[in-house]
Amino acid sequence: MISNLLNGFVEGDVDLYGINPIDPEDFPKVPKFVGVVLQDPEKQLVMPTPADEVSFTLENLGFTVTRESIMNSLKNVGLESRAYSPTEYLSGGEKKRLCIAASIVHKPKLLIFDEPTANLDPWGVSEVINYIKRLKEEGSSVIVIEHKARHFLPLTDKLMVLINGEQKLNLTKDLISSKYEEVVNTLNNLGVDASKPNLTRRNELYTKPVVITANDLWFRYPSSKEYVLKGVSLTLRKGEVGVVVGRNGSGKSTLLKVLSGLYKPDKGSIKVPSLNGINGKVRKRNLVFYVPQEPDYMFIHNTVLKELQSCSNKSFNFDEVPWVKEVLNESPYKLSHGQRRWLSYLIAKLHSPEVVMFDEPTAGLDIRLLKQFVNWVKDFVSEGKTVLIATHDVRVVCDIATNAFIMSEGTLSQVSVEEARDYLEKPVEVIS
Amino acid sequence: MIKVRPVTLFIYGLTITVLAFIARSTEQLILLTLINAPLGIYLGFKRLKILIILFLLGLIGLFVNSLIFANSGIAVLDLQFITVREGAITSFSKVTLRLLTILGAALIFVTQINVRDFIKSLEEELRFPKDIAYALSVGLRMLNILERDAKEIQLVRVERGYRKVPLTPADVGSFLRPLLSLGLERAIWIGIATELRGFALRNPKRAEIKVGVLDILLYSLLILQCLAILILA
């Protein structure tokens, strides 16, 4: 891929079932032997339905497409009942399974997964792990590239850690199973997320003043008859870090948008005491700010400087994020993904909100970037601000949450942070 | 369910677009618009509402353009600060009718085709190169994703104190920038993913063009419109 599709340069040779994938002559033959599942399903699904998606691979590789071959392939990943549903309506886990089905329908000898757990809820993660386990049992070779190594350690025959392009660790199955704890510690020290996160105790904040109260919120999209929020109530206090956990499609993002005043609830009320209890004025003073998962949605201007200037008249403290000084005249879209995420946090902060709502802020982040985010949130709440995070990431729950909610089919229930952690861990633990 | 073949829809859409440019008189353009625009907007309103709204907003720019470049002839309307003349009205209405015809034909096409059938049809029946057929198909598939992106961008614009719907050129720029950035990134990765699924090895078969009842109806409608344009010329 690097030398043939991304204009990169690779030195050396690779022997893959008798062909050299670096050689432009041999590269087109690679898909015959290798199935590749990329990180983001949205960037690899090209057809309108799962059945079309699977057929596309078969047609490309010259196989005869039959209804039976399509349905068998979809049955393997549990999607036979969705064969002719529009791809848009599939959940994140289903899309990932569809990518797998489309990549292996022709039974390649080797399967490569690029961060298979990114953007997935724990149920989606367990589906993918289960599937990889089955492929292994059936005799396929699988390469998994992953930040969250702990999910895959029990399945691993060979483990390699790459840091800045250098091979820092190379272990075999025998060593992993005989010295499991030692391996986990070594991986953690190398910055690989290998152990179960520990819950850090935090001060209870029940005596602090309330910053936002939502009461009996009901909401549905105009195009649907089904309510996404069904009588949701919640209270957030000053300095609190609330987390909302739940399956993909349970209504977490919608809740954040409703609380931010971006969507008007069909029923119910949102009160922000600093607005003297006036309903429906959340938006007017930007007291609640929503940060979407995709940072590119946030940018309006063509340079970083203009983005920052447009948010606030106050001068920007560059000591907080020194790299910003280097890229002031760059387009926000030319920054790395991590930097773009960071810029979206800065934009939110510069609007001086009382509450910031983050939608999946750590999806696809490695442990280094995750720690930066955690520290940023800690600094932010130490200034008396409040944060609500919709997440699947158990690391976020364990590291910063002071208050937790479980969202399920449009209803919200307040739980302890321990319960939220267990809720996210259980589906994956069953597999391990 | 009986469906119109993708190749028929493609030929219909392409021919109507060409007719919209060939037609010179207002009568010709009204005829084309009356047949294609209501049908296209009816079929596409639910799925592609935002595209239709953006098109209607674009008409403001079109009117300003007519005022700047074609405001000549008899005065029709005096608004104190500007006098709207016959030339501006004629130019605006002709271009609007032309664009409405094309929008209608495009919506009929987009809402009725299946992307995979479309690629196969273009490759096998019309013998298009596979890269062009595939690029067109991916473009169509991306419409839904673009619409979702546009809605998210609108939300953030409101949050940041900007107009939800772009009206000025600066608004349009700031609205399109994230859309293009996301679209470009997606296009690159979709290209890579497609190559990794053996697209380079794709070898389309050749097939004869087949027609069904609905195809015959659509071809008849097309022929009638061609004849009407010739008669009204």
Provide keyphrases for this structure.
heterodimer, A: Rossmann fold, B: 233 residues, mainly alpha, 2 domains, 8 helices, flat
Descriptive account of the structure:
Chain A is built from 14 helices and 14 strands. Chain A is an alpha/beta fold. Among the domains of chain A are: 120 residues, P-loop containing nucleotide triphosphate hydrolases (Rossmann fold), CATH 3.40.50.300; 157 residues, Rossmann fold (3-Layer(aba) Sandwich), CATH 3.40.50. In chain A, strands 10-11-12-8-13-14 form a six-stranded mixed beta sheet, with helices on both faces. Chain A is globular. Chain B is mainly alpha-helical. Chain B has two domains: 138 residues, no CATH class; 78 residues, no CATH class. Helix content of chain B is 73%, strand content 3%. A two-stranded antiparallel ribbon of chain B has the order 1-2. In chain B, a hairpin with a 4-residue loop joins strand 1 and strand 2. In chain B, helix 1 runs parallel beside helix 8 and helix 6 crosses helix 7. Chain B is flat, with a radius of gyration of 21 Å. The two termini of chain B are 39 Å apart. The model of chain B has no long low-confidence stretch (mean pLDDT 86). At the A-B interface, helix 1 and helix 2 of A face helix 5, helix 6 and helix 7 of B.
